[in-house]
Amino acid sequence: MTNNEQTFWVVYEKFKPHLFMVLVQVALVLQYFLVEASFNNGMDPHVFVTYRHAIGGIVVLPFAYFLEREARPKLTMTMFMGLFLLPLFGIGLTLNMFFASLKYTTPSFVTSMINTISSITFIFAIGFRLEAIDVKSPRGLAKIVGTVLSLTGALIMILYKGHTIQSLKGAPFHLGGKMAHNNWIKGTILTVVSCISWSLWYILQAIIVKKYPAKLSLTAWINCIGASQSAVFTVLVQRKPRAWFLTSSVELCCILYAGVICGGLLIYIQIWTMAQKGPVFVSMFNPLGTILVSMLAYFVLGEQLHIGSILGVLIVIMGLYLLVWGKEADRDYKSQESFPAHVEEKDCKTQIQTSVTEEA
């Protein structure tokens, strides 16, 4: 292997979590627009959440069963309660409220609100001692300032519109439909509560992944239990049997994409990254989704932009870079608890060999 190849793989391994989280945001942005198009065609948000995770569970379950037979820990009652609460916060509550709010607002609005999750998660992580801050160090201050800037940018995008930048006349697509986004108060309340629940989901993931290291199996549990919880919730709030039927190819494509990619692959990637870097690292890439949504909405879908949105995006980018810079000073999230077993074993063998050499 040449020096250039070695350098490439070293850099790749270092920034692999960053790359994965960028890909997660790109995939989620596509889902937002597919979901809005499906909701415009009449698909129920709660039915969508149920189908999404049912498909995600079906896709992941065979891989988890065969590939992690030896890796799965014993399922105790305490562990099952944790596995029940994790999808309750992440799917049963968060996604049902989140996608319901998308029915009353727009993708640009809900992705702007998502920017507050990193700040909320940061506060929760400090309370649960999952995040350490050294206020005397520049990088510790950078994490605090970056969090505040991300939250400030999100609030500017939400509360301040400013001058309107007209949409492009030649935009290739328009998401037309019968939905009228006219209940912003209800949509805002649902979005805010879902963001708080979403932050708690990140914290629970960080706690449970330490006790349940079989990540494919954990992904399968989240999808299967989450789909069951969402199905019960849907039956209680949506009593029309016809709501469960898909009426267009757009709805079918949306559910397949959301189930396989977002419900299966992205949750697994997020759990893997959570184990490596912690909950704050995962959540702080959410502002990137806002930027991508705003760009696509303007250049591709012909939506209007506002000066407040552009200003908020710039502030969010500054905050994101400060957070990333501050987090780079942290050790890998796994090593904050203890050294990996193979490292301890290797060090122990080295010490024994050294002692034998000295005695000889």
From TrEMBL:
Subcellular localization, as worded in the UniProt entry: Membrane
Originating species: Medicago truncatula
Transmembrane feature ranges: 18-35, 47-67, 79-102, 108-128, 140-160, 184-204, 216-237, 243-268, 280-301, 307-326
A Pfam family that the UniProt record links to this protein: EamA
Protein name as it appears in the record: WAT1-related protein
Originating gene: 25484296
A GO molecular-function annotation: transmembrane transporter activity
Principal location class: membrane
Protein family membership: Belongs to the drug/metabolite transporter (DMT) superfamily. Plant drug/metabolite exporter (P-DME) (TC 2.A.7.4) family.
InterPro entries according to UniProt: EamA_dom (IPR000620), EmrE-like (IPR037185), WAT1-related (IPR030184)
Annotated EamA domain residues: 19-158, 186-324
Keywords carried by this UniProt record: Membrane, Transmembrane, Transmembrane helix
Keyword Membrane applies: yes
Gene Ontology, cellular component aspect: plasma membrane
Record's bilayer topology term: Multi-pass membrane protein
